[in-house]
Amino acid sequence: MRGFLDLSDDELEQLVSTGRIYAVDIAGKRRFPAWQFSLSSPGKLLPHLAEIIALVAANRWLSVAGLMSTPQSEMVAEGKQTPVQWFRDGGGIDALAEILEAERWT
Q1: Which range has highest mean pLDDT (17-21, 71-75, 76-80)?
Q2: pLDDT by residue (tens digit) across 4-50?
Q3: How many helices and strands in the chain, by DSSP H and E?
Q4: 50 exposure class (CB count in 10 Å sphere: 0-12, 13-18, 19+)
Q5: Domain ranges of the chain
């Protein structure tokens, strides 16, 4: 991941510790879920990533992965979009906050 983002180990750790990149520990290894990356975005990160992480931080990573890959009726452009598609297309963070609040998502 460090190479993909062109960061040093310390820079990557700083981004994780400050909630600007989402990381999970699985079987003793740090993993970086693919949904948070976007080659077409500055820094190769999904727009609003720090805000997304803040909204979902207390939830299990598997639940977060499911949410980010499931089309949401509140996120409609040319049909329902997943949160990842929504943010890549310029959608705002308020839509995700409303989904999480309305569903009391956990």
Answers
A1: 17-21
A2: 888 999 999 999 999 999 999 999 999 999 999 988 877 899 999 99
A3: 6, 4
A4: middle
A5: 2-103
Instruction: Evaluate the CA torsion angle 18, 49, 92, 81 in order and state its sign.
Output: negative
Give yes or no for a contact between 105 and 67, defined as CB atoms under 8 angstroms apart: yes
DSSP letter, residue 7: -
List of residues 6+ apart from 57 with CB closer than 8 A: 19
Contact call for residues 24 and 61 (beta carbons, < 8 A): yes
Determine the residue type at 8.
S
Q: Which of 96, 54, 52, 101 is nearest to 73 (CA)?
A: 96
Q: What is the pLDDT of residue 74?
A: 87
CA distance 34 to 37: 6
Q: Is 100 exposed, middle or buried (0-12, 13-18, 19+ CB in 10 A)?
A: middle
What token pair was written down for 27? 């079987």
Give CA–CA dist 35/63, Å, rounded: 13
